[in-house]
Structures are given as structure tokens and as C-alpha cells.
Amino acid sequence: QSDTVLSALGDGVLRLTLNRPDKLNAFNEEMHLALRAGFERAHSDDRVRAVLLTGAGRGFSAGQDLGDRDPRKGGAPDLGHTIETFYNPLLRLIRGLEKPVVCAVNGVAAGAGANIAFACDITLAARSARFIQAFAKIGLVPDSGGTWSLPRLIGEARAKALALTGEPLDAETAANWGLIWRVVDDPALVDETFALAARLAAGPTKGLGLTKRAIQAAATHSLDEQLDLERDLQREAGLSADYAEGVAAFLEKRKPEFKGR
Ligand code: T3D
Asked: Hey, which end of the chain has fewer CB within 10 Å, N or C?
């Protein structure tokens, strides 16, 4: 058990809080493993119906802990190995989780920290937050899916400008461009994102998970492939207990009680 990621389950929401505030929640190996364990739990624990990812202190995450990459302490590290061992599995866990992942960007999100926020399903940011493709400042390439998500979310021109300059982007512009869902006044961020995550967690999460799968698949599908996928997933959703409950509740003019099955 590591305190580099705080983990709390309530109202069906697994809240994962990056917790190295002195380092703006930069990733060291311990925090990577703790966050991975959190998302693995989200995959396997049926009580988890949604995840809320956020950071402790004034930052969301400053990406890789550069203190662990000090060239004065040894030879060049194999970053391909660290990406394969830590960042890529994390991205696959977030994208592959068939439950909503809400991200509350409470402050600066730099490097991998920014791109992890963009990989979540619904990302809200505090008005004071900013996003930085910090890789450009130290001679690296955007990772954590950044070269995939940025052009898809905001187009090649803006993606290249952000990635090549490393200029910070304020939260309001990030929302206007469609990089994130919404900006929230700083004091309201925690309550608003938790309320959203809890609302999703109380919803028909089986169907929400299938919806996530469908929208993500569209990135590589033709229209025909996507129509076939929609048919298959709708068949699966139509067999769920939540669908039966949703229709019954509508017809009986009452609030549905979804179970995520
Ligand atoms: O290596 C691999 O495995 C490959 C994968 C790479 C993925 C990546 O994410 S590469 C990109 C790494 N991140 C960065 O380059 C960002 C570095 N940080 C910054 O540029 C700035 O800190 C920020 C723009 C994010 C915030 O600036 P500011 O002025 O608000 O805060 P600060 O004073 O710079 O930082 C506060 C403290 O956090 C400070 O420590 P101190 O002086 O108070 O003891 C600073 O050193 C520390 N900190 C911030 N970022 C990192 C960090 N310590 C280690 N690693 C960091 N990334």
C-alpha cells in the first residue's frame, strides 16, 4: 500500500488522488504502480461503477519525475522501456475500462500529466489549471497517447503548435477547443466532479461502458464497420438488466434503479 495515490470508494465512485504534492504529483515508479493498482481494481471490483482521477495540492501532475532521470547520476535511460512498462499500460487501462473515468484537473497538467487527463472520458479543469506539452522543452516526444489524442481532439494545426512549442494552454481555451469537457471555478471543482462521477456511477454503467467502447472504436472504423458495431453492442445492451429497468421505470413513471448489469 503506497500513499503516493490515495484511494477511496464511495457512492460507486473510486476516487484516485495523485499524492506527491511537493513534486506537483510527478510520476515516479511507486506512484505509477499505485495508480495502476487503482485502475486494475476499477476493472475487477463490481462495486466500482465510475472512477474519479485528480491530484493533491496545487498541481494535477507534472508528468515524469525528472529527478529520476538525472543524466549526472548515470548513463542515458531506455525511455522506450519505461514507456512500455509504465505509461502505455496505464493508458490502456484507462481507455479499456468499460466504466466512466472522470478527471478533475485541479492545477497544472504537464507532459504525461496532460495527456493522461486527455485520455479520460470526461475531463473538467479548475479555471486556474493549465496544460503543457512539456516534452518539447526537454527534447522528448509527447507520450501517453498525446500524439494520438491531440490531433483527434483539436486537429493537426493546434496539436502541432502545442507539441512543438510547449506553450501552456489555459483551461478556458482547452475547453473552447474541445480538449476537455468543462471549466469549473476552483473552489467548486471537487464537489462538481464528484457529483458528476456519482451520477454516472448510479446510471446504467453497462450501457455507458459499451458506449465508451463504441465511440473509441470509431477512431479506426469505417461507417460500415461502426454501424455493425452499434448493432452488436445494442444487442448486448438490450439484454442487460439495466435496459429492462430503464424502460420499466419510464413506463411506471418512477426513478430507475440501475445495477450496472
Ligand atoms: O522518462 C520517461 O519515462 C519518459 C516519459 C516522459 C513523460 C513526461 O511527462 S516528460 C515531461 C516531464 N515533465 C516536465 O518536463 C515538466 C517539468 N515541470 C515544469 O515545467 C514546471 O514544474 C511546471 C510548468 C509543471 C510547473 O511550474 P511551477 O512554476 O508552477 O512549479 P515549479 O516551481 O516548477 O515546481 C514545484 C516543485 O515541483 C519544484 O520542486 P522544489 O523546487 O519546490 O523542490 C519542482 O522541481 C517540482 N517539479 C515540478 N515538475 C517536476 C518536479 N520535480 C520532478 N519532476 C517534475 N516533472
From this structure: N
Chain centroid to CA 102: 6
57 and 183 both lie in a single domain: yes
Q: Cβ distance 108 to 132 under 8 Å? A: yes
Which residue range forms the structural domain that includes residue 104?
5-201
Minimum CA distance residue for ligand 1 atom 46? 23
Do 10 and 125 fall within a single domain? yes
Residue type, 237: A
Ligand 1 pocket mutation pick from 4, 18, 24 by most atoms within 8 angstroms of CB: 24
| pLDDT range class, residue 194, cuts 50, 70, 90 | very high
Q: Please state the domain count of the chain.
A: 2
Q: Write down the residue that cell numbers 448486448 correspond to.
A: 236
From 23, 78, 128, give the residue whose CB has the most ligand 1 atoms within 8 Å, as the site to mutate. 23
Mean per-residue pLDDT for 46-66? 98
Q: Contact 122/104 with Cβ under 8 angstroms?
A: no
Q: Which residue has the higher pLDDT, 158 or 77?
A: 158
- The verdict on 188 and 212 lying in the same domain is no
Same-domain status, 195 and 217: no
Q: Is residue 261 part of a domain?
A: no
The three grid cell numbers given for residue 187, joined into one nine-digit string: 473552489
How does pLDDT run across 199-209, given as a tens digit for each residue?
999 999 999 99
* pLDDT tens-place string over residues 68-105: 999 998 888 899 999 999 999 999 999 999 999 999 99
Torsion angles phi and psi, residue 119, rounded to 5: -80, -15
Q: Is residue 256 one of the residues assigned to a domain?
A: no
**How many A from CA of 66 to the centre of ligand 1?**
7
Same domain assignment for residues 83 and 139: yes
